[in-house]
Each structure stands twice: as structure tokens, then as C-alpha cells.
Amino acid sequence: MQNEALIWFFYVITPVGSMLLTILLVNLNKRKGDKAK
Amino acid sequence: MIITFLLYLTLVFAIGIMAERFITKSEEGYYLGDRNFGPVATAISAGATDTSGWIFIGAAGYAYAAGISTMWMLPGFVAGYFINWFIVAPKLRESGKDTNALSLADFFGKKLGDKTNLIKITASIIIAIFFIAYMASQLTAAGKALDSILSIQFNTGLVLSAAFVIGYAIFGGYRSVVWTDVTQGIIMLAVLIIFPLYMILGQLGGFGEFFKTLQSIDPILLSTGGGSTGAAAFGVIVGLVGFGLGEPGQPHIVQRFLSAKDEASVKSGTIIAMFWVIVVMTGSNLLGLIGRILVPSINDPEYVFPNLTLDTMHPILAGIVLGAIFAAIQSTFSSQLMVATQALASDILKSVVKKDFTNKQLVKISRWTMIGLGLVATGIALMNIEAVFTLVLYAWAGLGASFGPLLIMMLYSNFVTKWGAFAGMVSGAVITIIWKETPYAAYLYELIPGTIAAILAIVIVSKLTPHQPKIEQSPESNHIKEQEVT
Questions:
Q1: Mutation for testing the A interface, residue in B216, B218, B275, B280 having most A CBs under 10 Å
Q2: CB of B91 less than 8 A from some CB of A
Q3: What is the DSSP letter of B474?
Q4: What is the enclosing helix (H) or strand (E) of B295?
């Protein structure tokens, strides 16, 4: 199929990657905040 | 179908009206809901406000015409949400509370110590101009949806939609807008997850078969640049990615950060918000593509989702889907109506007529302003001059370029001066308007030149002009006299 890589990038890598990165950064931020307290 | 749709309308109206009971006595209560919203309300309301009728009508129509390449918008929106929730939201919430700012325009003015109110008035004028275009586009989307699904004549549907939203927003202020946003957001989310999955997995043979069918219809539907090649394709991709970068400057969205209860609400809200944008962008793109297979011959691509609903859904489910389209339209329209009203009835009026108003007077003025603004937006929508997609992107670019760079610079540095801020806002708005009229607009989205112009103007003019002395904030700075709101 034409542009299979593009389909994976749009519908799997970007959504899943963004979600995981967000969860990671939020948790890092929370830990940073807890340590500061 | 009509009964399900009417049930949805009744539910939203009841929630909107109910919110009136919870308005507190202050202007902060009417315009910011007393800064008391938790993570779910903050994130879903910001998402529902952000996600206008454009997502079901304009964006789905664009995917119908151009294929998967419109998904280039997703990385851009993800980047925009990252900037908004990690960079803008925490600082703006804190700084907004410290300066007692009730709106974005108010924040700019107070943070810069602008005693002449030039900044507040300029920002409010830009907000009012672009929001009227934006609100008109929402009503156009409503007219199209009612026309195609319920066969209500376009103009009649448009006027009825405007009357409905003004009706509930007028009573409960910001709190009713946020409460209805949350209800509407949940309906939208459900439809955008269930509908595409049901169609692709249940009716179209799974994802592999779905993309194969699209390729057999037209290989351009699976191409990188939607049929464009070379430099033109690059311009298309940059423009599509660039859409999301307008996020930080949207006054109706950043207003949610000013009204967030605490730091924890912003942090937890970030995950919900990111989930939201991914589902919404992917869902609407898939809806357009599904439409390309199931309703191949429609004259206006923006009718794809309504037509798809009518052709494939049971009438009861079609009523729910129509409710979701309306949820998207109404949540954005009501939020913009609220912010535009605040810009005119509070920010500009109080700056020009330097007198004290009682809360009762301010709420009355706000309600009449809301009706006036709603009528102007309805009038423009009735002219039916632009497609929903074009009108939304135009307003989005104007607001993003005028306020986005300025907001970030002001939150993270002290070098912006009053005249630097003024030059940045005006350049962002003017370059957006001018660029749109040039032939280059076909190759590069106006938000990008507008933003570059705004950044340059802020930096250069701030270097050349002196800082203003800061104003001391006091509870009286909002010209409020404590009095019961009735």
C-alpha cells in the first residue's frame, strides 16, 4: 500500500507517543513539585 | 431523531440555566466562575471550546477532499497543546491570580502597568473583530448541519441556533458556559471515538481494508501532501502543522487557565487535554475519509458528516450525532460570546468610561452586549460569505499571531514594554489580514507570517522604548462595588 509509513506515523506513532510523553512529563513535574515542597 | 436531538437541547439548556443559581456576587464570579474549576472542568471545557463546529463540518470536509494528509494538523496541535498546558497554563494561572486579571486583555494591561488602558483596549478590539468572524462561522456550521439532517432551511436553522446559545449563556455567565462545555465535551468525545471505530471495524472490514479502499478510490487520498508536490507540498504541510501553533493566543481557551482552581488542576488537566486533542483530530479525519467511501458524491465536502449520519445511522443514533455536532458548535460559540462580551462590556467600557459600576449594572450591561454581539454574528453568518473552514482558520490565525508570542514573552520575561506589546498585537493582526489578501496565502497559512511579524515587532519596539512603572493592584481596581447580583 502507498505510504504505509505515513499511516503508521499519523494514526499510531503520533497519538500514542504524544500521550506517553505527556504522562511522563506530568509525572516528572509532579515529582519536581513534591521535592520542592 | 428529532426527539433525541430535542432531549439533548433540553439537557444543555437546563444545565446552562441551573448555573445561574451559582453565580456569586462579584464580576470575577460572572466572568471567571470564581476561579474554582478542577482538572476535568478545566481540561474538557478548554477542549470543547477549542473544538468548534469546524471539527465536524470544516475539518471532516477537508479530510474528505484531501485525504490523510490533513492529519499533519495532529503533530501541530499536539505541539500547540504542549505549549499551552506545560508553558502557558501554570504561569498564567498564577500570574492571573496575582494581578487579579479577569481576562487576557486585562492581564496584558495589568502586567504592563498600563495606566492609559491602550493595551487592554487594543487587545479587546482585536478579540471582538476576530471573534465575530469566528462566531459567524459556528452559526454557518449550525445552519449546514440542520439543513442537511433535519431539512430545516439554512437561515432558519442558523437563527434558531444563535437564539438557543445566547439564551443559556445570558443567564449563568461563565459558569454556565463551562458546565455546558463539559456536558457537550463528553457527548463529542463519545461520538468521535465510537462512530469511526464502529464504521471502520464493523462496516468497512478493518483498518487495512479501509486504507486499501481509499487508495483504490484515489491514490491522492493517501499521499503526503494531498496531491501537492515539491515546494507546494512543503507549504501545505508547514501550514497544516502550523494550525496548532496558534493555540497559545486563543483568548477563549487561555481563559480556562485563568479560571483553574489550583496548580494540581492544571497538571492533571494536561493529560485529559492531550487525550482530548488526539481523539478529536483523529476522529474527525477518519469521519471525512469514511465519508469518501460511503457517501462519494456530495457537492459540498462540508456536508460529509451530516450526510454520512443520515445514510448510515439509526434515527435515534442520528439524533445523538446531531447533538454532538451541535455540542461542538455551541460550546465554542458560547465561550467566544462570553469572552467577546467581556472584552466590550468590561475591558473597553470600564477603560473608556472611567466610572464605578455596581455588579448589578455590569451584569445587565454584559447581558445586553451579549445580545448585540450575537445579533451581529448572526447577521454576518446570514450573508454566507465564506466556508466554515476558511473563516475559522482566518480568525484562528489573527488571534494566534496577535496574542500567542506576546503572552509567552510576557509570562517568561520582563523585557516587553507597553509599546512593544502594542506593536506586537497590531502587527500580528494586520499582517494576518494583509497576507490573506495576497496570492502567497495559497502556499503559506497567514498565522506563520503574522506570528513572525508579531515577534519581531515586540522585540524591536521593546528594545527602543522604556518600561512603564507598575500599578499597585487593589480589590478596587476592577471598579466593583459589592452588591447582590440579581
A1: B275
A2: no
A3: -
A4: none
